[in-house]
């Protein structure tokens, strides 16, 4: 990477700052090889539950891993139950998670990444910023109150078109292995920092989708940062931004983080398997209708339900919903609860699945190899 000194308008003043200009990737000789041993275990299906969707709250950016980290899963489930529960903080986090999931679909639905792909994804994940969905026109920086105190100062706006076109040509035309393209592309996009906000989220999505195209479901390697020094992650990013980094082995962070995620996923599936076995034990004691079985599958992703929510999800009428709910109440899988708001509203929750969810969350933040 090159460092240049330029005059930029920062907070209404002209200042001299040092900016980092990443190396062009197109036509460079890259000798990095990588192959990770992932998804080496069998897994079952747990109704509508998706582990990646479950983990989105820790990847969706903005306030999701900071102010909103203390939000309980029950508060989120109340908001998504369609009972009309008013909880602005939970509504905000659910919207972030949904935007992140939809932006991931934008990446995964295309075989060729375009500038429109990047802009559409950024518009979703940084929807709180009025300039989302466009390339920045101002200088930005990472960390510190001013560029001269920052951890990283990306290229000036006038360099962005060339750098983004170079990035697109690399990720779409390179003959390198998918994981090499994913990691180098992730690092390069972070260094370019082409958006006013949401750069980390877009780079995470790109990395996740490319790795999953080869390996199937994985736990995002960025979650490994929870247990490691932040500096190791920064070193892993910077490692491919230098000339010599394009001919050496990938930084050890990537192998350690992906293997950590793979082993963590095994443990998470063991917890899910125990929960599913307990549900099977409970329902084996009595005959269960097809609708009640379908509802159990839904509870894995939505452990709080109401009749309106089931109508929106399945198209069930009130009678069908009530019949399935009563079956699971009688089986001691669902329990009715009266809410303070909306006043006298009744929801039905599944403590068993919430207990499973709690074990999953606890393990994510405590698992170390």
UniProtKB/TrEMBL annotation:
UniProt-listed PROSITE patterns: FIDO (PS51459)
A Pfam family it matches: Fic
Domain Fido: from-to ranges: 113-256
Name of this protein: Fic family protein
Species of provenance: Pseudoalteromonas prydzensis
